Amino acid sequence: MVQRLADLDTDALLVTALPNVRYLTGFTGSNAQLLLGRDDARFFTDGRYAEQSSHEVAGVAAVIYADGFPERFAAACRDLGVSRVAFEADSVTYQQHADLQRPELELLPTRGAVEALRWVKDPEEVSALNAAQGIADRVFDSILGELAEGLTEREVGFRLDTAMLQAGADALAFETIVAFGPNAAEPHHHPGDRTLARGDVVKLDFGAQCGGYHSDMTRTVAFGEPSDRLREVYQVVLRAQLAGIAAVRAGVSGGDADEASRAVIRDAGYADAYKHSLGHGVGLQIHEGPSLRREGTDVLPAGAVVTVEPGIYLEGVGGVRIEDMVEVTTQGCRTIPQAPKELIVL
After folding, report:
1. Cβ 308 vs Cβ 261: under 8 Å
2. C-beta neighbour count of 123 within 10 angstroms
3. Do residues 179 and 189 touch, judged by C-beta distance below 8 A?
4. Cβ partners under 8 Å of residue 73, min gap 6
5. Which of 53, 61, 174, 213 has the least C-beta neighbours within 10 A?
6. DSSP count for the chain of H helices, then E strands
7. What's the pTM value of the predicted model, to 2 decimals?
8. Could you tell me which of 82, 35, 84 has the C-alpha nearest to residue 61?
9. CB of 329 within 8 A of CB of 249?
């Protein structure tokens, strides 16, 4: 991070986004800040986390406060001899900025200073991502045997969530998406009371969290024989997803990977039915960099973990999305989920 401070032309960086604090210190609580100087640093939290931080945060002097962070921040700046302090503009509110201001301090907004470091995962992070995805794989396999006529989207979502926690997930990665039939035409449908019927497609988008790291996968299956059109759409999405995976490798831009996949859907005549980007990075947050989107300029580094998730959504008919996390390598990428992608008809 010292080099990052030089790049930012600042004396110190105030880190307030909790995923970034966790990445840099290992702290897992719900309130913390980190002031990084060129030669020293200070970790801040409140009294609730005094004991927890004492065994999670090593090598950084801790400041435990009860009377508010701004005063302790100003004192730490004096102790470290810093006056130009960059702050994370995406996580500091207007009011917090006002509270931090002091005549002797120059506060400089910055974005992505720590997030860019998080793009590349080390072996320990990859292991946590693999574990989270392993839970999702096992739960997907088990939930297929539970699908039955009359179950609601909400009930299937509850079963998915419960199964992931029972399988060892620390938490859910995000709010599970379950969509039956025409509801699958909504990319981010909220599970409701629609009941499962023969001929429906079933779109499941879910993930687990292990050690702070997330998994993210989507599978679309058919409950009973699907229509010829939905079969066609499934095959188009599958070809698009495989094309996207084939395009992912270190040095490729997210925009180029998106285009490789999107071209398959466009050539099949469904361009207007593909309503989102190809994918995103996954790690301590379910959505992080790099981004795989139309005309995106993020260059994929070796060691990044990203999703590849094209979809086609037809109002009143249904939709198909297939999503895998992949680990970017210099030779291409490694697909992390083990769940099958060929159309499953139950």
Report:
1. yes
2. 8
3. yes
4. 14, 33, 35, 44, 100
5. 61
6. 10, 19
7. 0.94
8. 35
9. yes
337 Cβ contact list (under 8 Å, min separation 6): 133, 136, 137, 215, 217, 324, 325
Cβ partners under 8 Å of residue 257, min gap 6? 244, 247, 248, 278, 279, 292, 300, 308
Contact status, residue 233 vs residue 276, Cβ threshold 8 Å: no
- The continuous run of DSSP H or E covering 136 comes out as helix 123-144
Residue type, 343: L
Tens-place pLDDT, residues 114-123: 999 999 999 9
* Distance (Å, whole) CA 211 – CA 247: 30
Q: Is the distance from CB of 292 to CB of 213 less than 8 angstroms?
A: no
Q: Regarding predicted confidence, which is higher, 7 or 97?
A: 97
Tell the residue number behind the tokens 């071209």, with chain if given: 263
pLDDT (tens digit per residue) in 29-87:
999 999 999 999 999 999 999 999 999 999 999 999 998 899 999 999 999 999 999 99
> Which residue shows structure tokens 């939905």?
230
**Dihedrals phi, psi of 332, to nearest 5 degrees:** 155, -115
Q: Please, are residues 20 and 88 in contact by the beta-carbon 8 Å criterion?
A: yes
Sheet holding 333-335, edge to edge: 288-292, 279-281, 305-308, 324-328, 333-335
> Measured at the alpha carbon of residue 272, what is the angle toward residues 195 and 295, in degrees to the nearest 5?
120
What one-character DSSP code corresponds to residue 156?
A: H
Query: What integer best gives the mean pLDDT of the chain?
Result: 96
Bridge partners of 106, per DSSP, are: 84
pLDDT at position 2 is 63
Token readout for 174 is 């995000």
User: What would the two tokens of residue 87 be?
Assistant: 């702050």
